[in-house]
From TrEMBL, chains A, B:
Keyword field contains Transferase: yes
GO molecular function ontology, one term from the record: pyridoxal phosphate binding
Superkingdom assignment: Eukaryota
Quaternary structure annotation from Swiss-Prot or TrEMBL: Homodimer.
SUPFAM superfamilies, alphabetized: PLP-dependent transferases
Keyword field contains DNA-binding: no
Cofactor(s) this protein cannot do without: pyridoxal 5'-phosphate
Name of the molecule in the record: Glutamate pyruvate transaminase
Similarity remark: Belongs to the class-I pyridoxal-phosphate-dependent aminotransferase family. Alanine aminotransferase subfamily.
Residue intervals of the Aminotransferase class I/classII large domain: 110-470
Keywords: Aminotransferase, Pyridoxal phosphate, Transferase
Source taxonomy: Eukaryota, Fungi, Dikarya, Ascomycota, Pezizomycotina
Native source organism of the sequence: Trematosphaeria pertusa
Biological-process GO terms, alphabetical: L-alanine catabolic process
Length: 487, 487
């Protein structure tokens, strides 16, 4: 050990053990290596690499690939950033293609926030929360109140807030779907709380099984866990599945029975190819109407984000959560917690407002908005199916038909020789497969172990965002060679 | 208790006790009430109020008042938001007043981030971190490495990250200056770690007293606290004081002796009226040069932000911290922790880049940049002194000469009758005074108890950001009436 190692205040063994326990594979070692390759290629030093482009298929990050932002949103945003432009309406309209509704929206947003450089209220600017409430009402047919809307620094920040308030003790448990987007398990680890995993059923298009949820709950209770909440990602990540109405009702009934907060992560609500998105809010209100008294005590937190859908504005960090049925004193603690970090990024708040209140039929910007929106949707669907078809050609690979979100999560079969080699290299078999894929093709995906999977199964998650079919061909070829090498 | 109360999963008594313990007065009850008044006035329902405008003098939020953003930054930002505008350079230049360096910078930033709607690397886009490293080198005369720079969602997020990693156990302690910006105590409460307060010396222009630090440390150690870090806000908040070189060296010597991480919150480094800002980084490197071996093991984390200074872009949530001397394994855990929340807002990252790399002499945008920068600085200084002069007229009020930051933190004397009335209303005397001030004048400040103060002293913190002198006149009159009422 060097002399400074001995003398430093901090070393690996004495820092927060809960931070150490947290795992977040989406941006882990594989992603870091892919960025190293990317930097190498950018500097022209990639001659020894067997590929000349790195494809980030690990993160749902559409605009890092070729997805264009929605023109209306960015035109408005440019005016929010530089309000001086509003003194040149004629130039905007006649020379730069801005329509009158762009200018109108920018003026309105500036009236609501004053400046995108000023902190807003911690819960988000009131007028913008009103737009969110109206969106929810239009979507579900039931009202929403601005006071129950909390704009957030992406939905991730909303999840962080909710778990912070809920997780009171080391034996507090939150039910988490497996596979899951690892924000949940990572945050529970940081909070030194318990993850109560419930497995989704791959054979039922990754549906929720109430039997599975109930048995997971009972096992946890038997272990002394105080189960306080159930997280459910709908449409699913990494699975893409949209839950049918009966699954949603079953979860709500279980939550009512066991007094669990329902955390409904609905950020993919507009990425639906098969089936229909039903919000937990609507399902809850329907149940409350059909069976008065039985569901009135349920606490539901529903999250949404500008990062996904056709909006794809990940880098803006905009999202919200709606609190339904929460005790006002608890809501006050939630408010206090978020106020410590002041407020969510104001431009992100404005993108949320535009996401929930986009150009409508009859608005000057509507035709282009619709064309772009539909174009992105159709493009995503096309790529999803192209990748699905490619997977069909791959030996030992099984994939559910694309249902939505931005991901496919195929099952892979790793030959015993490869499993051995993986062990030699100190890696899980699916990790090993993914590292090989990156090293051979430049394509970065995420091993299934990063999301959780049933014992004995292996998967990887890939986005279908990257353009063209050349890269999918690389995967097909890699897989062929891999299976040949280890047969 | 209602039937739903009994049945809900969450209530005040069973949620996270550490969140409940956290206090953050800057956005507390007083601020909430001021927002209620603001909303009332906006709706035209304020006839019963004895004022017709609410002045938010509680939060360092310049652009919520009348401070204009720096034109160069917002022109570039408008192009980052809507890159389509770059296809119309002639219009930008000839009709909209954009200079060529604005266009150049926007093109460069877009090359570095690809899109402000795409997630960047979790540590922030590499090219932008290079700009920060170069700024640090220019400022201090010592090099900085991009790999040690972490862009963050405001400096607040950086503090949150560092404390999360450092606070390993309930008896971990972090030394915090009193008075302090309450992010530190609030975050330590959430982490269930210990605050080790050390009092700043009001009689010495709020300087740090090594005697005080040492005695606070020893008291904590005697109580079983594992003191791991010392936070120091320089220039100070709420005090505005710039630490002289000998104070900074004394803190570093103490940290070296006791093996403490130094967390240097330097967000007000450009808000300096009296004295000179010396960065902890420079002071550390100087010491390492002068006394080889003695200071090599020190870990220093220095934070900066776009929210303060002349930039004032609070709503953009942009900041960074530089890690000096950290164990690479510890840095890896810091990286993992921040990756869970994906990345800082990309536009905020770009504002950081422009803050550290603004137009230079000879650049086309420089004259206006300089004019705006100096104008804001002089305006702030003028307002600070105007407020200071107003305080001189107030009975029992003593205020240190404005030194910097955006705040004044005067001592107030509350007459015994008022202290009694405060007790009757269940409030601290300084809180009581501030509530009365808000109710009578519409001016929202923050009571000294929100920042911590020596026993038996009372203060309030006000910003000097609001324009004009009418509002300061309201405070003077209120104070006169208050002292009369309770004499």
């Amino acid at each position: 050990m060097s002399s400074t190692e001995v003398l430093r205040a901090l070393n690996y063994s004495n820092i927060n053990p809960h931070v150490k326990a947290a795992k977040y594979a989406v941006r882990g070692e594989l992603a870091v290596r892919s960025e190293e390759y990317r930097a190498k290629l950018a500097k022209g030093e990639g001659k020894d690499l067997p590929f000349d482009t790195v494809i980030a298929a690990n993160i749902g990050n559409p605009q890092q690939l070729d997805q264009k932002p929605i023109t209306f949103f960015r035109q408005v945003a440019s005016l929010l950033e530089n309000p001086q432009l509003l003194e040149h309406e004629d130039v905007l309209i006649n020379s730069l293609g801005y329509k009158s509704d762009v200018i109108e929206r920018a003026r309105w947003l500036l009236k609501e926030v004053k400046s995108v450089g000023a902190y807003s209220q911690s819960q988000g600017a009131p007028g913008l929360r009103e737009s969110v409430a109206k969106y929810i009402e239009r979507r579900d047919g039931y009202p929403a109140a601005p006071k129950d809307i909390y704009l957030s620094n992406g939905a991730s920040s909303g999840v962080n807030t909710l778990l912070h308030v809920i997780c009171a003790r080391p034996n507090t448990g939150v039910m988490v779907p497996i596979p899951q987007y690892p924000l949940y398990t990572a945050t529970l680890a940081v909070l030194d709380a318990r993850c109560v995993p419930y497995f989704l059923d791959e054979s039922q298009a990754w549906g929720t099984s109430l039997k599975e949820i109930r048995s997971a709950y009972e096992k946890a209770v038997a272990e002394g866990t105080d189960v306080k909440a159930i997280a459910i990602i709908n449409p699913g990540n990494p699975t893409g599945a949209s839950l049918p109405a009966e699954d949603i009702k079953a979860v709500l009934e279980f939550a009512a029975e066991k007094h669990l907060v329902v955390i409904a992560d609905e950020v993919y609500q507009t990425n639906v190819f098969i089936g229909e998105f039903i919000s937990f809010k609507k399902a809850l209100r329907d149940l409350q109407k059909e069976q008065p008294g039985k569901f009135d005590h349920i606490e539901l937190a529903s999250l949404h984000s500008v990062s996904k859908g056709m909006v794809g504005e990940c880098g803006h960090r905009g999202g919200y959560f709606e609190l339904v049925g929460f005790d006002p004193e608890v809501a006050a603690e939630i408010y206090k917690f978020i106020s410590i970090q002041l407020c969510p990024p104001v431009l992100g708040q404005c993108i949320v407002e535009m996401m929930v209140n986009p150009p409508k039929e009859g608005d000057p910007s509507y035709p282009l908005y619709k064309e772009e929106y539909d174009g992105i949707f159709n493009g995503l669907k096309k790529r999803a199916y192209a990748l699905y078809e490619a997977f069909k050609q791959m030996e030992g690979v099984k994939c559910n038909e694309p249902q939505g979100s931005m991901y496919l999560f195929p099952t892979i079969t790793i030959p015993p020789k490869a499993v051995e080699q993986a062990k030699k290299e100190g890696r899980q078999p699916d990790e090993f497969y993914c590292f090989r894929m990156l090293d051979k093709t430049g394509i970065c995906v995420v091993a299934g172990s990063g999301f959780g999977q049933k014992e004995g199964t292996l998967h990887f998650r890939t986005t279908f965002l990257a353009p063209g079919t050349e890269w999918t061909g690389r995967i097909v070829q890699f897989h062929k060679d891999f299976m040949e090498e280890f047969k």
